[in-house]
Amino acid sequence: MRIRNIAARDVLPVRRFEVDGLSDMLVIAGQNGVGKSRLVDGLIARFQNHQQQSGVRLLIEATCERERSAWGQSTLDTAAPPDLQKLARTLQASKSRTKWESSVIHFESDRSIAQIQPYQFNWDVIDPWGESLGWNTTFGGLKARFQDTLHSLFRKVQSHEKQIAKRAKELQASGASSMALDFQDPLILFKAAFSQLVGPKMLLDLDPRNQQLYFDDAGQRLPVSAMSSGEREVVNIVFDFILRAPSDCIIFFDEPEIHLHPELSYRLLQTLKTFGANNQFIFCTHSPDIITASLENTVVFIRPAQLSDDGTQANQAVIVTESDATNSALRLLGQSIGIVSLGKKIVLVEGAASSLDKQTYGFILKNRFPELVLVPSGGRQVVESFQQLTDNVLSQTIWGVDFFMVCDRDVTDPAKAAATESAAAGKLRYLSRYHLENYFLDPRALTLVFEELEPDHSWLRDIQAVSNRLRGLAKENIAYAVGLIVSAELRRDVGNVSVMPKGLQGQSLDALIPLFADRALQEASRSRSALDPARVEALVRETYLKLDAACSGDSDEWIISMPGKQVLARFAGLASIDLGRLKLAYIKAVQKHSLNCFEEIIEIFGGFASHRH
Questions:
Q1: Which residue from 27, 22, 24 is spatially nearest to 287, judged by alpha carbons?
Q2: Could you report the per-residue pLDDT of 31-56, keeping only the tens digit for each?
Q3: pTM for the whole thing?
Q4: What is the Cα 537 distance to its own chain's centre?
Q5: pLDDT(400) > 70
């Protein structure tokens, strides 16, 4: 079965929520405090409490012949008492532990693993796969359910061994001297899911007497308690899910991304879809990644309660699609409307969806400004159209959400940076250094990184040696730096070529041609002026001499003006260390020794956090 329509009234703080034609995946999104979780609780309560009056009305659609036959119809309306009784009989029918059909499963936001108590075995070990359970055991309580899941796995192994021994005795009694050993591992699905979730780690065979899960990690046998909290959480969820093998079920999932790295969250959702059949997933989420990936299904935003023009309560459910007009401003950033669900203060940083800059800023800031949410913005092309960025994004408040932006210095004309920051009224800030990576070029911090990695005599532990090597790498990179700086300035001067004339409406072909020709001449003249060879030569010469002087002197000016990405990458190569690992170790060293390498970055984000309208 699946929910086709929802009509909810006064499930506070939600006043009115109405959607219909739902798909097999429904995503309910919105800001904190708008009432997402309360609404989901109301939907679940409608399934649990069949006799009570409720502000929730559901239209339930059959997804298999078994349901249609039991109901005598294809849909049930919970507003009709006879239909509500049919739904109650379906839900309350006896359920097999590993054949969970036509039911509701709830994965609440609290999915931590409680202390597992040992199971008291006896001689009469019954195969848990055939046991019946109460119909409402899957309404919440995952923390407690995990103990039952583990006990079932331990008992299954014990039962499996008992069945093998029984079969051996039967064959021996019949005169057989050998027996086929092709017994299927009862945990094969659990092992496969474990690898899919947290591979290359592998789940090891269970020892019922020890009653502990162990896994193999690069040849080491470790207990599951040695895994990260996020890894333990997804194992908790998926093992519970696999054990029940749900089909034709409605599965509520409150904040699947909570406590999880985006990649682990993605693996979790993909793994869940692998098991069971004809299930409908209802996700309550803040994750723009989940929202964006679900736009081809049903995505519903809950907006704040408000009255319609006629004085009645307006529907708070906003169906979002790729073609939704609200997306127009956000497409400039390579984002969808899903970004609005993240919080009330969103800081845009350069990069694609899996932005390394976002991760770097996150590691630097840690939990210093919890009210700020960092989102990749798509790159330099956004900032180069500053007026469009300001008009369409930074000056807008979408459903109470404010946007800010921090950029590398390389995306703007340094002479205009202060003016553009001022025009944005504190919502756009440029780093004073060329790249974010320029803040990772402090020689002292770099030597601290290698204190425990290199022997005492290594040049990587000598501040002067590291400083000289960095400066040398910068000098070798001057020509490339000139190319980046000059081409960026010329690109800003030339801009996008547009031959679109004004006043085209109603023009004839004969009138249209000269309008385009005149516009093309204007653009050609502007481009020729910007790309005048003498001007380009002067710009190259000026830029080269400036960078060469910065790299040759005793000051650290080169750390500000030279492109840091290339210098840091080459330094990582010389040090034989992965660039990402070097950055993370650098951040840890700065924080451990209280260095001020990231002081400016922290100040910028502090300004965003304290910003008021």
A1: 27
A2: 777 888 899 999 999 998 876 667 99
A3: 0.59
A4: 46
A5: no
Which structural domain range is residue 312 located in?
2-108+246-318
Does residue 216 carry a pLDDT above 50?
A: yes
- H/E stretch holding 4: strand 2-11
Over residues 529-577, the pLDDT tens digits come to 888 999 999 999 999 999 999 998 788 889 999 999 999 999 999 999 9
Residue 99 sits in the same domain as residue 183: no
CA dihedral of 50, 51, 52, 53, whole degrees rounded to 10: 90
Residue 535 tokens read as 């001007």
Q: What is the pLDDT of residue 354?
A: 47
Examine residue 416 and state whether it is found in any structural domain, yes or no.
yes
CB 417 within 8 A of CB 425: no
* Whole-number CA gyration radius for the chain: 31
Q: Is the pLDDT of residue 353 over 50?
A: no
Q: How far is CA 22 from the centre of its chain?
A: 24
Is position 456 within any domain?
A: no
Pick the last residue of a domain from 228, 259, 284.
228
In a domain, 120, yes or no: no
Which pLDDT score, from 0 to 100, does residue 395 have? 65
Find where tokens 């409608």 sit: 46
CA–CA dist 262, 230 (Å, integer): 11
Tell me the C-alpha distance between 420 and 406, whole Å.
12
DSSP 3-state assignment of 8?
strand
> In this structure, are 6 and 104 located in the same domain?
yes
Asked if residue 283 and residue 214 are part of one domain, the reply reads no
State the average pLDDT over residues 131-139: 81
Total count of domains within the chain: 3
Rounded Cα distance, 485 and 386, in Å: 19
**Do residues 61 and 154 share a domain?**
no
User: 9 and 100: one domain?
Assistant: yes
The enclosing domain of 85 has a CATH number of 3.40.50
d(CA 79, CA 56): 9
Residue 243's pLDDT band, with cuts at 50, 70 and 90, is confident
Residues 6+ apart with CB under 8 A from 36: 28, 29, 30, 284, 302
Domain boundary among 265, 297, 318: 318
